[in-house]
Amino acid sequence: MGGVVGAYFLANFISGLPRNGESILKSHKDFSIVTPEEVQNIPDAEVFKQFTAFQTGFSDLDFSLKADTALASERIVKKTQLNPEKTNLSNRYELNGVTVTTDYERKEKPVEDKSVSLSGETEKIKQTIKLKNHTEKEQTVTVTSRAKISSDTIRYEGREYQLTENAQTFRAYDKTASIPEFAKDLGEADLPDLDKFKNYEHTYKTGSVISFLTEDKRKLSMTGRMPPILITKFGHTKTKRGFFWSWCLRISRFRPIPKR
Known about the structure:
The chain contains two helices and 20 strands. Strands 2-6-7-8-10-1-9-18-17-12-13 form an eleven-stranded mixed sheet. A seven-stranded antiparallel sheet has the order 3-4-5-11-20-19-14. The protein has a two-stranded antiparallel ribbon with strand order 15-16. β3 and β4 form a beta hairpin. By secondary structure, the chain is mainly β. About 5% of the residues lie in helices and about 55% in strands. The chain has a domain at about 5-150 and about 235-255.
């Protein structure tokens, strides 16, 4: 029926939530039409009104879609809903033949393995992107999520990287290592009795964490376990410098919704 991408955002929960309702997004003003099959920069930034980590570390959030069939139109109907407990925010976007829903839900459980996460200092917010195919045939859809970040230096695998004119790609990879080295990569090298397990190996995902400092010197990190993490320059303003962080997922055999 569709593809689901999960992600956790760790941030502070505050008031100032968006109201439930419907709005109309217009092309050339709110989003861009590249071709009839590709739409870019659809805004999804309501989370900034809820999480202070987004407000201090991020200045924008949007997504793009590319499909086999024409999905672009001059207007996109966007419906926003916040549950009474103020723990779940949902945005639904109606495109031609495809419906996209982005959910943000406050969670207490640890981050899932197959997720993309932004890590702050407090609670966990799970982001889920759902796609529904309303056409009559299977197709391939590419989804790209992008966040603009207020920093021009990142840290990856123990090294610092400066903002460059060309995009830089950082991919998570599988690593097989001894248990002590596995613990070290997790930041738990001081656990007692690790030497007893030096002859045991474990395969795990690594190279998946990118961290940066906000302008107020708070550390935020991004963890990408399923798609690659892409860093690219977005330019300079008088008060801020920074980069885009984005992930991209290609869904093959995106099936239509079965008719009842």
